[in-house]
Amino acid sequence: MLENLTSQPPDALLALIKMHAADPRQDKIDLGVGVYRTGQGDTPVFAAIKQAEQRLVDQQDSKSYLGPEGDMGFVEALMPYIFGDDPTRGGRIQGMQTPGGTGAVRLAVALAQKAGVERLHMGTPSWPNHAQILGDIALELAPFNHATEDGRADIDAVLAAIDGAHETDAILLHGCCHNPTGVDYTDEEWDRIAEALASKGLFPIVDTAYQGLGHGLEEDAHGVRRVLDAVPEAFVAYSCDKNFGVYRDRVGAFYAKAKNADELETVFSNANALARAAWSMPPDHGGAAVRVILRDADLTKLWLDELDTMRERMRTVRERLAEAGVAGSVDLVPLGRQNGLFSVLPVTPEQVKQLREDHGIYMAGSGRINVAGLTMTNIDKFIAAIADVTG
Ligand code: PMP
Fold this sequence. Notes:
By secondary structure, this protein is α/β, with parallel strands linked by helices. Helices cover 45% and strands 15% of the residues. The chain folds into two domains: 116 residues, Aspartate Aminotransferase, domain 1, CATH 3.90.1150; 231 residues, 3-Layer(aba) Sandwich (Aspartate Aminotransferase, domain 2), CATH 3.40.640. Strand 9 and strand 10 form a beta hairpin. The model has no long low-confidence stretch (mean pLDDT 97). Bound molecules: 4'-deoxy-4'-aminopyridoxal-5'-phosphate (PMP). Homodimer.
């Protein structure tokens, strides 16, 4: 039986981690793995999370099962941050906890498919797991171009995709801090997208995995709120893994807006059934810690301060890159106006290899870099290396 299986290609980023670990050079730079790093190169546990975890240790009195919806205190505490005032829009938005943003994306597309969606429009390049999930559930992908060559959003491409969509289509949009390009729609572009979605009647799924890492929690929610206000029905996939630094605890949530409370209930009876068959219920610990933070004003303030520090550090790195202007054949200026952890450099796979071999700089073969891997100590070396291999 098992001889019927064929080997799958190894995950390229995991292979990169191994190569980086085996490199003895002291000044090697890891721009591959998608986690935040401090100016010292660490990915520490947030102080707010540590304190919340301590409270859980002291006060949690049971680890008995929750339902497939997970910790609803967590799910509801997040809603004002994502949806703003009137977070349920008069009882038309509800959510459930999922294993990370990945679980939320998986649930959103599987449920959309169950509701009759046959094809999903998506800007490319995108987070590679989007296409993998679609392949796994056999939902057709209709790609459109996400970013222009000068590092801006290709608004014409997304509007054309919406305009040409069929009745049984849906569209997936990144809420903020686009992975991998860092290229987000401006507020005005979101307004146009929201209007186009509403007039076409196209069903949107908004994937928000980095709220607070672009321009701020409120600013980064503009797109998702604008879309949800414009359309009668939508899904949102949300991850807390980056903005609370709880990556391995798998903290996410799935939200739906429906036309009315009755339909919303039916949506969640289906979402619960899908979750039950896939993972039964989400892991509790990280979501519980986030709930403890969001229900406590002091811990919330501590979390917001930590998030500000992260965002400001990434802005400083981006500004420093933009100031460098052109390095070899690479224009670094667009990186200054891009958002979040990632940007894509216009380098060839051969140049990526040269950066690794000659300079100890590790990045994805696509040219994606994690800007949080750069520090004020290694950034000049990085810029010089880009000039060297592309000049
Ligand atoms: N969506 C996007 C766009 C992402 O970049 C990621 C994480 N890399 C996720 C979803 C999933 O996040 P999580 O680690 O919470 O599963």
